[in-house]
Structure formats: C-alpha cells, structure tokens
Specification:
Blueprint (H helix, E strand, L loop, with lengths): L8 H8 L4 E4 L4 H4 L7 E4 L4 H12 L13 H15 L7
Parallel strand pairs: 1-2
C-alpha cells in the first residue's frame, strides 16, 4: 500500500476473512482495518521496528476465529437500496 492509495483492498479482504493484518496508520486503513491488537495492528508508515513488534505480537497469539459470514456485494447493494428508500430517493411520490 502506498501513501497515495485510498483503500487498502488487500488488507480489507484479508481482514474480512479473519486473517490478522498489519498495515500503515494512514487514512483509508484507519477507517476500515481493525487495529485491536488481535485482528490487526496499524503502525506509522516506515516504522520498521513497529512492524517487527506487531509481527511478534500477532505471531505470538492464537489466530482469531473467522467471521461467521462475510459481506458480499449483494449485501452492500441491498444496504444502499434500503438507505435510498429510507431517504425517499426512490419513492415515486417524493
């Protein structure tokens, strides 16, 4: 992930499947990556020692259980559709 990348897709996908992740503490990652010390750890960019500490921490503990269900694009579409209905954007009478 570079400093210019707005969405850390690879980290998000790994986290969605229950894989603990280590990523940069940058906008985009901070909003979407868990940084609870179990499912993930965010470290400042270019902090090599911070990455080493994060690796030691995550490797030294049991892997968390995977999520019971992973959201799909269909789920996201349904959530947007419900939101649009709630806002009245799709109501014919306005």
């Amino acid at each position: 992930m570079s400093r210019l990348e707005s969405s850390p897709t690879t980290l998000e996908e790994a986290a969605a499947f229950g894989t603990p992740v280590i990523g940069p503490a940058l906008p985009g990652a901070e909003e979407s990556i868990p940084s609870d010390g179990v499912r993930g750890i965010l470290v400042p960019p270019f902090d090599v020692e911070g990455v080493a500490r994060a690796l030691q921490k995550l490797l030294g503990q049991p892997r968390p259980p995977p999520p019971t269900r992973v959201r799909t694009w269909a789920d996201v579409a349904q959530e947007y559709l419900a939101l649009f209905h709630e806002l009245g954007a799709l109501d014919a009478g306005g």
